[in-house]
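Fold this complex.
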Amino acid sequence: MTNKDNIYKPTEENIAQAAEIIKNGGLVAFPTDTVYGLGANVYDSHAVAGIFKAKERPLFDPLISHIAEIDFLQEYAQTDERVLALAHHFWPGPLTFVLKRKDTNPSIDLACAGLTSMAVRMPNHPVALNLIKKSGVPIVAPSANRFKTVSPTTAQHVYDSLGNRVDMILDGGACRIGVETTIIDLTGKNITILRAGGLAKETLEDFLGEKVLINENSSSHPKAPGQLLKHYAPKLPMRINVEESDVKEDEFFIAFGKVSRHAELNLSPSGNLEEAAANLFAYMREAEKHTNYKGIAMSPIPMAGLGLAINDRIKRASYKE
Ligand code: TXA
Ligand code: MG
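Structure:
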């Protein structure tokens, strides 16, 4: 990790160059609506393996394929009317589908960790869509950070975590949503949320006209294998659901909403959950730099809307083994 000469502005020319890197089996980090992704050509086994290596991620943890056209979905995975209706309504956007696989290419086996299902999404970001179209292939991309660390919401975060392990980082500024996609399992009759994320459960339920279940299984072999109990770990120990009167002198306080005590940071002084989600990972990264504090204390976050995703991430971040 020497210099930042791999961070590029997302000009047409640079995106075209990034697409060449993808086609030639390299790794490109790119902005999406949720968090930055570390992308590779899904049809290149060597490149897909390179993602796991760069992230130091175990091979049992499958990746999400990013596509730019709904029509492509039918070639790739098993779809039905329900899947297509969801895609037409929510894509591009912060929603990932787990579907039964169609393709049996060996590189896709690796990307899907040998599962018979696959995760697919269409990101709502012009740079991501442009890159996928220019590459001419689906791009598999996990969050562009080392395994078990906080996901990156800026190009600088990607650089701090992966440095020159990435051939090119396209800098699209801060990600608008700031937490990863909501992942839903569409392989069975009922729709289950495997990971709470940038699309609120309520929004999904309003569209479907039915309740959606949440998969609470988060042991060491969860259904979304990335949902390990200890994940998103900041370097300082973190306590959550801490009322402002219980914050200790030597704790870095991350507040939410109006507080009367001094807070080192506030996720959203007005109590807006979208704003809090967008700030969450950047603030956790900021907090862990302050090693003169013994730990991080975070205010309670309401369990509604994007609060589900926020609570999920901070619960994992605060988990003690
Ligand atoms: O917002 C996002 O989803 C970002 C951006 C870059 O698109 N990506 C992301 O990827 O968060 P990653 O790899 O950090 O998380 C993907 C999650 C993991 O928990 C993985 O276990 C789960 O998706 N997953 C992938 N394929 C799956 C499958 N076939 N069945 C169940 N879970 C799957
Ligand atoms: Mg991740």
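The mean pLDDT is 93.
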